[in-house]
């Protein structure tokens, strides 16, 4: 499953549309971190994009802050902005209402891929969010034994960029075994 993070901006709207067109609505989940204090037009735009793309856009909220209200976070954290050495200033509402909510959703839903929309002038934001972090993926094999029947074995973890090379090595070594590369364990 592909999670497309919809921010109520044009870049994420286009990212969602292109992802659904390429991979199909059945393989995509559109997710938004609603913030009570954002402009009400965001919800109108969210509904327009949902209708345009033909997919429901679901909410992901931090369970500790179900109202998704920045004021609640500021009161709880006693700050609107926090200076972090080496990082600069961070907004606790962004960490709590967007990032932590996203992590909770990811843990509960275990997506294979994430799509975020960036414009060309958001290079710094891209580097902060994604940077050059390699995507980890696993090589799995489907095997059979009398004791276990059909079962799936995790053979190794590698960077996504190296997955095809590793698949070639495993397939050449054991041509009668089915090998796949994916983040989640496939079904036997």
Write the layout of secondary structure elements.
Elements: E1 2-5, H1 10-23, E2 28-32, H2 41-53, E3 57-59, H3 70-77, E4 82-84, E5 88-90, H4 92-109, E6 113-116, H5 123-129, E7 136-145, E8 149-159, H6 163-173, E9 178-182
Parallel strand pairs: 1-2, 1-6, 2-3
Antiparallel strand pairs: 4-5, 7-8, 7-9
Helix pairs in contact: 3-4
Describe this structure in words.
This protein is of the alpha/beta class. It contains 6 helices and 9 strands. The strands form 3 sheets. It has a 4-stranded parallel β-sheet with strand order 3-2-1-6. It has a 3-stranded antiparallel β-sheet with strand order 8-7-9, covered by helices on one side. Strands 4-5 form a two-stranded antiparallel ribbon. The longest helix is centred in the middle third of the chain and has 18 residues. It is elongated. The chain starts with a strand and ends in a 6-residue tail after the last strand.
